[in-house]
Amino acid sequence: MALLEVRKLVKAFDGKAVLDGVDLDLEEGQVKVIMGPSGCGKSTLLRCINRLTEPTSGQVIFRGEDVTRPDTDVRALRQRIGFVFQNFALYRHLSALDNIKLGLRKLRAMSEQEATSRAEHELRRMMMQDHGAKYPAQLSGGQKQRVAIARALAMDPAVLFFDEPTSALDPHMSREVVALINQLYLDNVTMLCVTHDVFLARHISDRVLFLDHGCVRAEGDADHLLEDHEDPHIRAFFGRETQGQ
Ligand SMILES: Nc1ncnc2c1ncn2[C@@H]1O[C@H](COP(=O)(O)OP(=O)(O)O)[C@@H](O)[C@H]1O
Ligand SMILES: [Mg+2]
Question: Which of 142, 152, 178, 193 has a 20 to 30 Å separation from 199 between CA atoms?
């Protein structure tokens, strides 16, 4: 059974459909990347799936359950979906370790000791074990993103959503973060990742979806979609338009 099935998802703002019938499946252990022009609805799609934004119509089925129903426990749903944002969204007044512990203490009701040991484990996984006591202002962008990923993983989500995780990073930091997300891919962590970063897309995914005009216009393995797709619009988007023809 698919972990996540999105069926004919529509989201309109002021009567204008941003998502216009999106279908998407994600299996356990699978990684899919969503690419597409700015403003095509990538963030809206992620936000509709965990109900940060209310879909206009269509279904999101999470482990067999339609989570667009009004009686859905939205809080429980969001705890099953880890979210990593472009701008890290860390609490400035908390150390890296305490940023990770917060959800474990408040939402998972873990003891202080249990939460510390869990948070330290996830920091090690992100090669950040020496930085737990630092505040976000004392960390580089790449380090902040690694803390944000550690925080999401600590909650043991069924799936991790990324919304342009490398967009705010310089190329060097971006590669560090890609290497760590690649490790999660090798560890079979289920992920759905919105990105413009072709390097990231290639290193973490089985499948790339191209979203345009509110629909999934193409889906395929990364090489095919990024290199030699038959749709000239997609080739042009990835800068692969054949010259002189
Ligand atoms: N809360 C909102 N109210 C009105 N329009 C919105 C809102 N959120 C997003 N939009 C519009 O929906 C479109 C898609 O936005 P978004 O999902 O952020 O695109 P992407 O992430 O692909 O760049 C944009 O035109 C944006 O202006
Ligand atoms: Mg976006």
Answer: 152
